[in-house]
Design brief:
CATH topology of the largest domain: Alkaline Phosphatase, subunit A
Mean pLDDT: 92
Oligomer: single chain
Order of helices and strands: HHEHEHHHEHEEHEHHEHEEEHHEEEEHE
Structural class: alpha/beta
CATH class of the largest domain: Alpha Beta
Bound molecules: calcium ion
Strand content: 15-25%
Radius of gyration: 22 Å
Largest sheet: 9 strands, mixed
Number of helices: 14
Length: 490
């Protein structure tokens, strides 16, 4: 893969408000007073997105080795969704969250670097996937910025190269966001080493010192955003790299979890557990800062993950055990089984959500887009696949006007071959493109997807397959193609 150095050109200052621009903003502030006054009535929005955090990785979702007291406390103050869905890999979910449009409709079906690699040895050729989020898409940040919000991306972007960086998609501030989906290392200066085939770095994080840990630093930067935005509504998108590979954590925390580990535990990776602990501590610091500044009562806080937990082994980091385990769900990142797409989701919205509520309705992370825009008294994009979740947030037993969720991953990964899926009620159908194989599961009675009912219920399987095909046509989903050069077994 070709190195991507273009993005190195614009890393000079993460804080754009300097000199003439500061004067201009001050002037605009004066002439736009009514807008800011109206915006001040609207809530601040904090979205904290973990990377590759599995559905059962938090204490409040059943983790045993991992300890997440701050997130568990947040869950007690939030609506906790038990069936929230992302896409199965990074960039598609991020694109969906920011636009409210389905990843397949956007044409972003694999992570950005993956879209640049072509496999030629498999039975199928991957569907083409966009390399960036087009500027024709108006993001959540762009809309909130237009409404008077101060907008900041801290951490992972993964939606295109320099000409599609967060600054071009409505973010006033970008700290750390690049084309890449993972840091070279979690240790300052967050570059060097030879983990990836191309040069990687995390920009805007100078003035660190050896021993500084990326999750902590990104949290520090998020606190700066909160401090800096005081008096103006803000949208803070804190997209942690953790707990994505490389599996690296603070040694004292690793030692703690090594001592705690027992063979019967669901989770078996003490380094990963320590990474999750750093996320939890960071969430706690953000919540504390909101409270200290008197902002907690007017700030919506969302915590979620961009795909299911990664179940491979990070051998490059010297690991010998799988990164995580999404049990009781099947499989993990990349797959359209539940372990690949179901993620934790907590939403705390003062005045709307009742603390400690649990919502079992299936929801899609695209739903956060119209939900947050409506919260800010803004209209969602005219073409939006997400639904406003406010009724569910007020009453977790409310009915959402949607009867099916769709997924499309026309690519390979260690956990899957190209596949689409539909979930309607408790039924879920997966269609594998290599051989047209259908798998039908009843999630109500078989959440671990162990019994394929496609042969036993052919009519139901066929009807769901038709729905899936119609949906693919409607959104213009790109399909994988037969590989004419495939030399393996036909
Ligand atoms: Ca991810």
């Amino acid at each position: 893969m070709k190195p991507h150095f273009r993005d190195r050109a614009i890393v000079s200052s993460p804080w754009p408000l300097s000199g003439m621009r500061r004067a201009l903003v001050a002037m605009l502030g004066l002439v736009s007073l009514p807008v800011f006054a109206a915006a001040a009535m609207t809530p601040n929005i904090v979205v904290i997105l973990a990377d590759d955090l599995g559905w059962s990785d938090l204490g409040c979702y059943g983790a045993d080795l991992h300890e997440t007291p701050r997130l568990d406390q947040l869950a007690r103050e939030s609506v906790r969704f038990t069936q929230a869905y992302a896409m199965s890999v990074c960039s598609p979910t991020r694109a969906m969250l920011l636009t409210g449009k389905h990843a397949a409709r956007l044409g972003i079906t694999i992570w950005i670097e993956g879209s640049l690699q072509k496999n030629t040895s498999r039975r199928m050729i991957d569907a083409a996937s966009r390399h960036d989020l087009p500027h024709t898409e108006k993001t959540l940040a762009a809309q909130l910025k237009q409404a008077g919000y101060f907008t900041a991306l801290i951490g992972k972007w993964h939606l295109g190269d320099a000409d599609h960086f967060p600054e071009t998609h409505g973010f006033d501030v970008n700290i750390g966001g690049t084309h890449w989906g993972a840091p070279e290392t979690y240790w300052w200066p967050y570059r060097g080493g030879e983990r990836f085939s191309e040069y990687r770095y995390v920009p805007h994080l100078g003035f660190g010192q050896p021993g500084e840990y990326l999750t902590d630093r990104l949290t520090d930067e998020a606190l700066h955003v909160i401090d800096r935005a005081a008096g103006k509504p803000f949208f803070l998108y804190l997209a942690h790299h953790a707990p994505h590979t490389p599996i690296e954590a603070k040694p004292a925390d690793v030692k703690y979890f090594e001592a705690k580990l027992r063979p019967e535990m669901r989770h078996q990776n003490p380094v990963y557990a320590a990474m999750v602990k750093s996320i939890d501590e960071g969430v706690g610091r953000v919540l504390d800062r909101l409270r200290e500044r008197g902002l907690a009562g007017n700030t919506i806080v969302v915590f979620t993950s961009d795909n299911g937990g990664f179940i491979g082994i990070d051998r490059k980091a010297g690991q010998t055990v799988p990164v995580t385990n999404n049990a009781p769900l099947r499989s993990g990142k990349g797959s359209l089984y539940e372990g690949g797409i179901r993620v934790p989701l907590l939403v705390r919205w003062p005045g709307v959500t009742a603390g400690g509520a649990v919502c079992d309705a299936p929801v899609l992370l695209a739903d956060l887009n119209p939900t947050l825009l409506r919260a800010a008294a803004q209209s969602p994009n005219s073409l939006c696949d997400g639904l406003d979740l406010q009724s569910l947030l007020r009453d977790p037993r409310a009915r959402l006007e949607r009867d099916a969720l769709f997924f499309h991953y026309p690519h390979y990964y260690a956990t899957t071959t190209p596949v689409s899926a539909v979930r309607a009620g408790g039924w879920k159908l997966l269609e594998y493109f290599e051989d047209g194989r259908l798998e039908l599961f009843n999630l109500d009675s078989d959440p671990a997807e162990q019994t394929n009912l496609a042969a036993r219920e052919p009519q139901r399987a066929a009807a769901l397959r038709t729905r899936l095909e119609n949906w693919r046509r409607e959104v213009g989903a790109v399909l994988p193609a037969r590989n004419p050069d495939f030399k393996g077994k036909k």
